[in-house]
Amino acid sequence: EPEVTQTPSHQVTQMGQEVILRCVPISNHLYFYWYRQILGQKVEFLVSFYNNEISEKSEIFDDQFSVERPDGSNFTLKIRSTKLEDSAMYFCASSDRQGAYGYTFGSGTRLTVV
Amino acid sequence: QQQVKQSPQSLIVQKGGISIINCAYENTAFDYFPWYQQFPGKGPALLIAIRPDVSEKKEGRFTISFNKSAKQFSLHIMDSQPGDSATYFCAASTIQGAQKLVFGQGTRLTINP
Fold first, then answer.
1. How far is CA B31 from the centre of its chain?
2. Average pLDDT value for residue range B8-25
3. CATH number of the domain at A5-94, out of 2.60.40.10, 3.40.50.10580, 3.40.980.10, 3.40.50.300?
4. Contacts of residue A107 in chain B, CB cutoff 8 Å?
5. Over the stretch A75-99, which tens digit does the pLDDT of each residue have?
6. Would you call B99 and A107 a contact, using CB atoms and an 8 Å cutoff?
């Protein structure tokens, strides 16, 4: 079964450093998403991306965050200057259709900011 | 308005019993209600979903009951098995327009053998 692949599985970074989280969506999918889950809390929407531009973003997704699809296969989330409160599990998801149908989530990247 | 409230936070059920998890929403524009199952170290995986034009949907041991007037929906797991032990999230979205999922807080389900 096709999978969404995320790397690394765990990243530790110092406060103020930039991090890039990488995702390889399912190959024929056109809609891409990032969500995050702070430990023990609910999964929260960050951003959706389609046709090389952001479709929607949450209030969490401020100027410190950016997304990019640098080539035909990768989808990245960049956090420019990490804060302690950015520590969370970050999930990438992709879908082959508009709407919440057919999401496939990756296994996540656990980001720890120290 | 965008919240989805889920209860209970944790649930312990004996093997063979029925597990019931409840969710309530506020935004009447929501028209897609999925349930996700998450095992430790993994991403959420779609379990079952319902649209508001039906009051119940069953897939194997998993059933969603939907009450549009009360703005509530619930997941029932019949004949619960130890392999069902996981965190379950309800979510809501709109089919048209916004594609984001609004998740509930999650329920950690433990099935005792």
1. 14
2. 98
3. 2.60.40.10
4. 41-43
5. 999 999 999 999 999 999 998 877 7
6. no
